[in-house]
Amino acid sequence: MALIVQKYGGTSVGDVDRIKNVAERVQETYEAGNEVVVVVSARSGVTNDLISRAKALNSTPDEREMDRLLTAGEQETIALTTMALHSLGIPAVSRTGSEAGILTDPNHTRARIKEISGGDLKEQLAAGKVVILAGFQGHSESGEVTTLGRGGSDLSAIAIAAALKADLCQIFTDVDGVYTADPRVVSKAKKLQYISYEEMLELASSGSKVMQNRAVEFAQKYNVNFEVRSSFNRNPGTIVKEEVKSMEDVVVSGVALDNKQAKVVVSNLPDQPGAAATLFQSLANADVSVDMIVQNIGREGKANMTFTVARDDVVRAEKAVQSAFSDVGTGTEFESSEIAIVSIVGVGMRTHSGVAATLFDALANTGINIQLVSTSEIKISVGIHPESAEDATRLIHSAFGLDTV
Ligand code: ASP
Ligand code: MG
Q1: Ligand 1: does its nearest atom lie under 6 Å from the Cβ of 153?
Q2: Inter-helix orientation angle 355-365/389-399, to 10°
């Protein structure tokens, strides 16, 4: 007998037929003799719908009330899923986040988990019940309902698996697992059998997001191995776990494409200490996150700074830059253009050389111009024209031997 945590996301519980499908999968796991905790999200679209209703009534809704509102989405699915299991003759009981003792800090809409007591979960499991737990929610010390940030049901699942020392944690979603590239772009993309936490995090931040990042970080911190797999078929998924030596034999595990970025060039900055600090502080205050940064050599007491931001943030970025330098009188200029960022990720880069050369060669041979480059220990990203982005992704995928894995 094993203790298994299964998490089903919004599309997996999207309507009554899908909830029935989830109940049947849970039934199978339960009847195989396991203890099962099922974490569910709100039906897909429900959380967004609740947010837009709130915004229609108040452009800056109170965050406590927001949490009260949004937790209703998961509350619906725990009750429906439990009812579906009862119909199949399976003893099941639902629990909210606070009933399961998921204690968080008091920061509404983005609370962090402090501790998990588990409430009466162990007793319910010992009594032969399946426990259906509401994802995304917890409670603060003072008993207020809190939420864990968008996509937070993933975190609930990983955290409860850690707290209960589950034998297995499965994240059921609408994709088969983690792929070497987006299969919609690269037809030869392959599903990975294993991936390390770190690679998963880098791929997500580079445009291949399968799960909430905080959940993966939490799993890494508490070493919770988990499987990402589809609730719509029986294919085995991808196991996410700590890095092991054999993972280093593979130089590149995946290629990610983020086609929603913009390149910003700020020119005529005062070339003096503090200018960059002023610029990026102003961007940070406007809640704009900056990715790649290149500073060009200053000429005639002026400097240029090039960086990338999400395309949706360009307007806010421009305002922030203008306001930061309006009183300096240097005639600072702001220019933006669309850019695509293609990244290769792999823990094997730590021990292999020539990775950047292979990447640049592949692009050069087909005349794709690189506008920006950034690297980390396990990732190399290039900024290129969006027009060539998909071709570049396919090319790079094959240059690193991923077509034939
Ligand atoms: N329902 C929440 C959201 O949409 C949490 C989740 O789905 O994981 O963000
Ligand atoms: Mg979700």
Answers
A1: yes
A2: 130
Could you report the per-residue pLDDT of 143-157, keeping only the tens digit for each? 999 999 999 999 999
Enumerate the domain spans of the chain.
Answer: 3-174, 244-405
Question: Per-residue confidence at 302, pLDDT binned at 50, 70, 90?
Answer: confident
Which of 11, 46, 47 is the best mutation target for the ligand 1 pocket, counting ligand atoms within 8 Å of the beta carbon and taking the most?
Answer: 47
CA–centroid distance, residue 264 to ligand 2 (Å): 32
Which tokens belong to 234? 């029986």
Query: Which pTM value belongs to this model?
Result: 0.91
Instruction: List pLDDT tens digits, range 84-106.
Output: 999 999 999 999 999 999 999 99
Please indicate whether residue 50 or residue 249 has the higher confidence score (pLDDT): 50
Please give the class, per CATH, of domain 244-405: alpha beta
Angle at CA of residue 48, ends 45 and 53, nearest 5°: 120
Name every residue whose Cβ is closer than 8 Å to that of residue 49 and which is 6 or more positions away in sequence: none
CATH classification of 3-174, choosing from 3.40.50.150, 2.30.30.220, 3.40.1160.10, 1.20.120.530? 3.40.1160.10
Specify whether the backbone of 31 is left (phi greater than 0), alpha (psi in -120 to 50) or beta.
alpha
The rounded distance, in Å, linking the Cα atoms of 270 and 96 is 55
Q: Give the contacts of 132 (CB within 8 A, at least 6 positions apart).
A: 38, 40, 78, 81, 82, 85, 92, 93, 94, 95
| pLDDT at 206 exceeding the cut of 90 | no
